[in-house]
Amino acid sequence: MNFEQMQYVKTIYETESMIRSAELLHISQSALSQSLANLEHELGYKIFKRSRKGTYPTDMGNTLLPYILDIYEAQQKLETKVRALDSKLTGTLKIATIPTLFHQIVPRALSEFKKDYPHIEVQVEEDDRDHILQRVENQEVDIGLVAKRESETFKSTIVDNDLNLATDFKLIVPLKSKLSFQSSVSLQQIQNYPFVLFDRNLYQHSIKQFEAQHGRLQIVFRTNNPGVLIRTVSEGLGLSIISSLMLENDPFVEQDLIDVVPMGEPFNYHVFFTALTHANQPNAAIVKTFIQYLRQ
């Protein structure tokens, strides 16, 4: 009996599939089956039964599984403690981020970071860009994740750590809209269409400038929730503008529930994502390490 077998049992229990478990564990199905058979032989009881519908615990398996899962969890706690003892990084990391990075980049980076540094407490808050800049300046957060224009610069007290990531903007429209045939669409072309505003500083600023020159848009709905925005467009209630990055892996796009069209003026530019830190950063080692995870 070994810790590896405990992980195998946990994965089989969660997936209810030997094939899927082998894929997740990166081993062959035959190796997984043999390891399980060895454990069952050692215990003297069958833990799982197989059927066409999947792999499920036997009656005795249901009795033994809580103990097996306890062993697995104890092993995880032990490994976490050992990594914490070996690590030179300590403390708390506070992050403020715009929604685009909050939804698309931060979860993956944070998950990997926490695997390697589970003892470091990480606090993440979604916020508006302007407020994030202020919080970095006041050293209320360690890292501020924002978007910027290519030529934009910041105060001398702010360090700009480029994340090597950029995005452009797309018009999202209800399925089968006549606008879907366009190679690109300017904001002026959709001025009289019902419009759903992504109520964030970057979008507000560009639209206010446009309205000052060309008159008001037909804004019927405002939201700072990208999921609500995309769903609203899919229901045919209006058009909207959102970054391409926010649309990556979105189920409404993947299932062809909305159409996506390149944006023209005044949204025909790229923004670049960066991690802002204060020049006098007390948590410099942790901050530098986490930014490396964001860049991966």
TrEMBL record:
Say yes or no: keyword Mitochondrion present.
no
A GO MF term: DNA-binding transcription factor activity
Record's protein name: LysR family transcriptional regulator
Q: Where is the HTH lysR-type domain?
A: 1-58
Give any Gene Ontology cellular component.
Answer: cytosol
Source domain of life is Bacteria
Record carries keyword DNA-binding: yes
What family does this belong to?
Belongs to the LysR transcriptional regulatory family.
Q: Which InterPro entries match?
A: HTH-type_LysR_regulators (IPR050950), LysR_HTH_N (IPR000847), LysR_subst-bd (IPR005119), WH-like_DNA-bd_sf (IPR036388), WH_DNA-bd_sf (IPR036390)
Q: Which UniProt keywords apply?
A: DNA-binding, Transcription, Transcription regulation
Alphabetical list of SUPFAM superfamilies matching this protein? Periplasmic binding protein-like II, Winged helix' DNA-binding domain
